[in-house]
């Protein structure tokens, strides 16, 4: 019986390591390193922000639908990093993600991927490399209609501030 305990404990430990997502491992690896910044916004905070909605802002109206927003970005542009985009894309378990947008140019790469359950998007993942190295992960439950409303709101804000 005692001989079985060690292999069982090892097996349970190995399973728990695999349960951690590849995105989680990337955030843990770069969190706290010089030249990188991580931001995590909890679902509870987003629900609180959603309560401040005055009805005019589509993002605030839908903020309670997000369960988490995480950002990992290279803060120091002068820092030498092997192609961050390639590192991230090699390490991400792409199972379950659908590629929505890919942009490749001489100085940058961008990829947007989503996970969906039917017509509801449960996760957005934006990965950029080159001159701007970052990962943005947004989890929640958003419909296509909510996304359309928020993107229109962003476009309207950009027009208002002369950014268009």
Folded structure, characterized:
This protein has 164 residues and is α+β, with helices and mostly antiparallel strands. The chain has one domain. It is built from 6 helices and 6 strands; from the N terminus they run H-H-E-H-H-E-H-E-E-E-E-H. It has helices at residues 2-19, 22-30, 43-50, 58-62, 84-91, 144-160, and strands at 36-42, 66-74, 98-104, 108-117, 120-130, 134-143. The protein has a 6-stranded antiparallel beta sheet. A hairpin with a 3-residue loop joins strand 5 (120-130) and strand 6 (134-143).
List keywords for this structure.
164 residues, 6-stranded antiparallel β-sheet, 6 helices, 40% helix, globular, disordered C terminus
Tally of individual helices = 6
- Extract low-pLDDT stretches: 6-19, 157-164
The structural domain count equals 1
Strand order of the largest sheet: 1-2-6-5-4-3
Q: What pattern of helices and strands is seen along the backbone?
A: HHEHHEHEEEEH
Q: Which percent range describes the beta-strand content? A: 25-35%
Q: Helical residue percent?
A: 25-40%
Largest sheet: 6 strands, antiparallel
The separation of the N and C termini measures: 70 Å
User: What is the β-strand count?
Assistant: 6
Whole-number radius of gyration? Answer: 19 Å
Summed up, what is this model?
The protein is α+β, with helices and mostly antiparallel strands and 164 residues long.
Helix and strand layout, with pairings?
Blueprint (H helix, E strand, L loop, with lengths): L1 H18 L2 H9 L5 E7 H8 L7 H5 L3 E9 L9 H8 L6 E7 L3 E10 L2 E11 L3 E10 H17 L4
Antiparallel strand pairs: 1-2, 2-6, 3-4, 4-5, 5-6
């Amino acid at each position: 019986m005692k001989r079985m305990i060690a292999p069982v404990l090892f097996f349970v430990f190995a399973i728990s390591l695999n349960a951690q997502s590849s995105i989680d491992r990337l955030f843990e690896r770069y969190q706290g390193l010089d030249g990188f910044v991580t931001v995590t916004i909890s679902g509870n905070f987003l629900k609180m922000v959603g309560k401040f909605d005055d009805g005019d802002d589509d993002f605030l109206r839908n903020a309670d639908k997000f369960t988490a927003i995480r950002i990992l970005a290279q803060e120091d542009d002068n820092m030498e990093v092997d192609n961050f985009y390639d590192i991230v894309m090699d390490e991400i378990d792409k199972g379950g993600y659908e590629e929505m947008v890919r942009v490749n140019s001489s100085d940058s790469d961008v990829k947007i991927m989503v996970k969906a359950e039917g017509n509801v998007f449960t996760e957005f993942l934006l990965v950029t490399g080159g001159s701007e190295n970052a990962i943005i992960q947004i989890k929640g439950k958003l419909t296509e209609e909510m996304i359309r409303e928020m993107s229109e709101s962003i476009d309207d804000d950009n027009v208002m501030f002369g950014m268009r």
